[in-house]
Amino acid sequence: MAQALDLVIVIPTDLGRFERGPLVDALLDALPVAVDVFIYTPEEFQCGVSGGYDVFAAIAIEGRQIYPLRVQA
Predict the structure, then answer these.
(1) Would you list the domain boundaries of the chain?
(2) CA atoms of 30 and 69, how far apart (whole Å)
């Protein structure tokens, strides 16, 4: 059975939704599994969570944060 990974990236950007994919394409090509990537701004993700969309709630509850953003003060 083929393995697949759903990857949600939340990153501040001014790029449009369909312009964001090339930011991570080279990294994903190196992975040994198929990857579906979804890139949201923090505002879009929060809107999805607070809007009651099931997929965002599931990501917020069940998702794993693999690289936390550290903001320099």
Answers:
(1) 4-62
(2) 23
